[in-house]
Amino acid sequence: MSSEMLPAVIETSNAERKQDLSDQEESRKPRLGEGLEPVSKRQMKKLIKQKQWEEQRELRKQKRKEKRKRKQLERQGQLESNLDGNDRKRIRRGVVHSTLRLIIDCSFDSLMVLKDIKKLHKQIQRCYAENRRALHPVQFYLTSHGGQLKKNMDENDKGWVNWKDIHIKPDHYSEFIKKEDLIYLTSDSPNVLKELDESKAYVIGGLVDHNHHKGLTYKEASNHGIDHAQLPLGNFVKMNSRKVLAVNHVFEIILEYLETRDWQEAFFTILPQRKGAVPTDKACESSSCNKKSARVEGGLDSDSSEEEDSRNELDSPREEKKQDEENSTESVVSSVPH
């Protein structure tokens, strides 16, 4: 064999060897229904799903395009409604802010255990949320802020530092508000409010004490030489329980009165159902009217409720409605614009 033919023979043999190797590899690949290792049902399902996935690739792509287009149309629709003035932000532009100052006095921090501090914190959150939603929001003050309350808020509600439309101060309210402008709201006061003076600053005692410190807020007002009064609850309402209300209930009643200018409507919109509140005229139709009235009047010497949850439950008709609405969104405070 000549030297010229040798490279051709070698090349031919290499090509044949490669072909044999590829045939062997092909024969080793598993085939459907044949081979050394038959395909299991699970593997078969995976192969079918993979095939379907590949076949539907274009369909998924088309659906994504349609979804993007739909969202774009929704955004355009929202923009048009905003221009028409139908969104919440534009509605809030029509809110009329009251000049009335409403203060929660937190100077009783050392008299409460941590459990009651947490309840007070929740009530303050409710007050903040309601004031932000109100048609006539007040000038909201949180004074003597510190101690256990501030620590609890720092640990469990760090967003409080970003709250808007509220004045949170470590100082006592008497240090920056004139004494003649102050009126302390306490159920022990012999003075009954007839109407609200929006040039005044009304103080609510930030105390959850379960009847341990009777008459404390009345003493606080007397010691500082501050005018005091109680809401005209007895003039419009007869209740099965004491007249003392939670911090947030007093706050919400004032907000409601500023909107309606009707004490009875404000009371019956806010008061929890468990208090068994009825209008005074209907209450007197009952044969037991005098007995219930005596029990209520006898309970006017307290700044706190007898029941543990009486300052914390929020089960008025309006609150039940709001709770249903909030279930579709979220927290009490998280649903409020900050």
From TrEMBL:
One GO molecular-function entry: methyltransferase activity
Stored InterPro entries: MT_TRM10-typ (IPR028564), MT_TRM10-typ_sf (IPR038459), TRM10/TRM10A (IPR016653), tRNA_m1G_MeTrfase_euk (IPR007356)
Region entry Disordered, spans: 1-85, 279-338
Catalytic activity annotation: guanosine(9) in tRNA + S-adenosyl-L-methionine = N(1)-methylguanosine(9) in tRNA + S-adenosyl-L-homocysteine + H(+)
Keywords attached to this entry: Methyltransferase, S-adenosyl-L-methionine, Transferase
Residue ranges, compositional bias (Basic residues): 60-72
Bias-annotated ranges (Basic and acidic residues): 14-34, 311-325
Any one biological process term the GO annotation gives: methylation
Record carries keyword S-adenosyl-L-methionine: yes
PROSITE patterns registered for this protein in UniProt: SAM_MT_TRM10 (PS51675)
Enzyme Commission numbers on file: 2.1.1.221
Keyword Transcription regulation assigned: no
Segments forming domain SAM-dependent MTase TRM10-type: 87-278
Role noted for this protein: S-adenosyl-L-methionine-dependent guanine N(1)-methyltransferase that catalyzes the formation of N(1)-methylguanine at position 9 (m1G9) in tRNAs. Probably not able to catalyze formation of N(1)-methyladenine at position 9 (m1A9) in tRNAs.
Protein name per the record: tRNA methyltransferase 10 homolog A
Source organism: Ceratotherium simum simum (Southern white rhinoceros)
Gene designation per UniProt: LOC101394560
